[in-house]
Design goal:
With 628 residues, this protein is mainly alpha-helical. The chain has helices spanning 43-47, 51-59, 77-89, 100-110, 121-131, 137-146, 151-157, 159-170, 175-178, 182-185, 211-214, 219-232, 237-251, 268-291, 301-314, 318-330, 337-340, 355-366, 378-381, 383-386, 391-426, 434-442, 453-465, 471-478, 488-495, 502-518, 528-535, 568-581, 584-588, 594-604, 608-627; strands at residues 2-6, 13-16, 19-22, 30-34, 37-41, 67-70, 93-96, 192-193. Helices cover 55% and strands 5% of the residues. A hairpin with a 2-residue loop joins strand 4 and strand 5. The chain starts with a strand and ends with a helix. It comes from Manihot esculenta (Cassava).
Length: 628
């Protein structure tokens, strides 16, 4: 920390009966009142350096002994006034980054300029500020922080803008060249004079050495400083993102659900205090969002989603939410299921999580550019080869194109896993509309799901949480499910799941047998319950098994298994009852027989064993219908 001393006389100010005075052989003739404090001083040293005091004394009438001057709006208070008064008396004063702003504003107020006297206080303060304070990192930070107490005066004098420029220019400088950082100076005292040298040498720090020091600034000063740093264009965007993350961790607490969202009553004073705090946090968050670098990947997807959660809780502006949603969509493959569980505070619905916001994020993800072609354009293989390009360059571009396409495909696979896991988490919400669940499930293209086990798990959880669904709604829900992509364990559960529509149960049995037939007999043994169920339909139960995939942990009551299920015979009777109750013929086969003929044409085109199995199921359906 650098400092400057002015004056040589000892301090002779003293306090007597609540009045500050100075020891002198000359009697005092001036009373100055500064914010409730009274000073008994002398006109000569003060008026000779302070133009404002000259004007005030000339305008006010003189009393018999003392002339009184009121300074009610003095910047910096009594401490700053006393510094200026001691300078006028030649008493030694010490200036540093901690008090130079207050002294400079006070000197400006008193008009201690060169027009009054050469070498006046303003001139000396400006020399010290420009040549010493603004040349040091920690001094610049402290000085900028101290301008917060005098925002208008600091702006008019230009101290704020000069500090910001000094800090922005030093961000790219090695810390060893500008002295200790402000945070380190709390632990190591390193006071040097203006003309002195640094007392210690320090090891080189990381490129983000400046972020923690700047995190001490208020949001208004921080925002202006970061804008200046970004305008230089020399700081990497990922460093800007890391600095914003440090600042958010410093000033944004773990924001929780507001009291009124939990229907908790609060007093008027508590409510006002909470609203004021939320307003400050909202301003801080929106300012951070406005500072986010434009480059993709400059900040992590997890950090963006944390900001989005906070924006939802604080009821931030819609533009800030949309900007965060857009940025999350650009790198959604990095997200986890927990990241997407954004609490909902909308009055329009009572869902636990903001599904609309996640759907917006998915839309932004799908709006990204199409994957590059997997083969090089014809022009590159033809016309450009005839020019100066070599075949090696074309092959290199082709490989790069394929790598880019592969990365895009990989990201879609990751997003599909995350969305299916998200569906499992929100499916148990009794207030979640069926349309939103289906819209989320259908937002993922079919090729992005290698298997449908996680989707089936989510559908099963939703059916358990919404027993009031009609038969048609259950059919709509299961349309997104591809039975061909279910593992053996999932098929075992689905075939005996009474919550599923009959169509799905039939499809599960049908496609399992079709795959077994196509395997050419080279299959392993199925569990006994499924083998018995298939054998009752004259189906060879031999078939390979696969493991069930999972992406997220589910509560025990939501997990499905095949242990403890009913016996094959009782399950077969349940299947027959469901076949009799279902209106398969009414909805799937047209009354004029056209639909029936087309269905049987499709069946005849199938392999022998699946066709026999499906015909068996239809005959069961007809016989059950005739009995009723």
């Amino acid at each position: 920390m650098k400092f400057m001393k002015l004056g040589s006389r000892p301090d002779t100010f003293y306090t007597a009966e609540a009045v500050r005075s100075v020891s002198s052989e000359v009697s005092s003739d001036l009373i100055i009142q500064v914010k409730g404090s009274r000073y008994l001083l002398h006109k000569f040293p003060l008026l000779s350096k302070c133009l404002r005091l000259q004007r005030l004394c000339s305008e006010s009438p003189e009393s018999s002994q003392h002339q009184i001057v009121q300074l009610p709006d003095f910047p910096g208070g009594i401490e700053a006034f006393e510094l200026c008064a001691k300078f006028c008396y030649g008493i030694t004063i010490t200036l540093s980054a901690y008090n130079i702003v207050a002294a400079r504003c006070a000197a400006e107020y008193l008009q201690m300029t060169e027009d009054v006297e050469k070498g006046n206080l303003i001139y000396k303060l400006e020399v010290f500020l420009n040549s010493c304070v603004l040349n040091g990192w920690k001094d610049s930070i402290v000085t900028l922080q101290s301008t917060k107490a005098f925002p208008l005066w600091s702006e008019d004098i230009g101290i704020t803008s000069r500090c910001i420029e000094a800090i922005a220019s030093k961000v790219l400088t090695q810390p060893s060249k500008i002295g200790l950082s402000h945070s380190q100076s709390r632990r190591v005292r390193d006071d040097v004079s203006c003309n002195g040298a640094e007392s210690q040498r320090h090891k080189p720090a990381s490129k983000l050495w400046w972020a923690e020091d700047m995190a001490e600034l208020g949001i208004d000063l921080y925002w202006r400083t970061m804008v200046a740093i970004k305008s230089n264009g020399k700081v990497a965007s990922n460093l800007i993102g890391d600095a914003l993350k440090i600042y958010a961790a410093r000033w944004l607490p773990n924001i929780s659900r507001p009291r009124n969202a939990n229907n908790e009553e609060a007093s008027d004073s508590d409510s006002d205090s909470e609203n004021e705090t939320n307003s400050k946090h909202r301003l801080l968050l929106e300012s951070i969002v406005s500072l986010l670098p434009a480059d993709k990947g400059a900040v992590s997807c997890s950090f963006l989603l944390k900001l989005l959660k906070a924006a939802n809780i604080l009821n931030a502006s819609s533009s800030s939410k949309m900007e965060l949603a857009r940025r999350v969509g650009l790198q959604l493959e990095e997200a986890t299921v927990n990241d997407l569980l954004i609490p909902s505070f909308s009055n329009a619905n009572d869902t636990l999580y903001d599904v609309n916001l996640v759907m917006t994020i998915l839309e932004q993800f799908k709006l990204q550019g199409q994957s590059p072609p997997t083969s090089p354009p014809r022009s590159k293989l033809g016309f450009e080869r005839r020019r100066s390009r070599s075949a090696e360059n074309i092959d290199m571009e082709f490989q790069e194109s394929r790598r880019s396409s592969s990365a895009s495909h990989s990201s879609k696979l990751k997003v599909a896993k995350v969305v299916d896991g998200y569906l499992q988490q929100i499916a148990s919400d009794v207030n979640l509309p069926l349309s939103k669940f289906i819209a989320l499930a259908e937002s993922i293209p079919d090729f992005a799901r290698h298997d449908h086990d996680d989707l089936y798990r989510a559908i099963d959880i939703y059916l358990k949480a919404h027993p009031e669904l009609t038969k048609s709604e259950r059919k709509r829900l299961c349309r997104t499910l591809d039975c061909k992509k279910l593992s053996v364990e999932a098929c075992m559960h689905a075939a005996q799941n009474e919550l599923l529509p009959l169509r799905v149960v039939v499809q599960v049995l049908f496609f399992e047998q079709a795959r077994a037939a196509m395997a050419g007999g080279k299959v392993t043994e199925l569990p006994r319950n499924i083998k018995a169920l298939l054998a009752s339909h004259d189906i060879d139960p031999s078939r390979s098994t696969a493991a069930l995939s999972t992406t997220t942990s589910i509560a025990a009551e939501d997990q499905w298994s095949v242990s403890g299920l009913k016996s094959p015979k009782s399950k077969l009777s349940t299947l027959r009852m469901k076949l009799a109750e279902d209106d398969l013929e009414e909805h799937d086969l047209q009354s004029n027989g056209t639909g029936r003929a087309s269905k049987f044409k499709a069946i005849r085109a199938l392999p022998t064993r699946p066709r026999r199995m499906f015909s068996k199921l239809l005959s069961i359906n007809r016989s059950a219908g005739e009995k009723n």
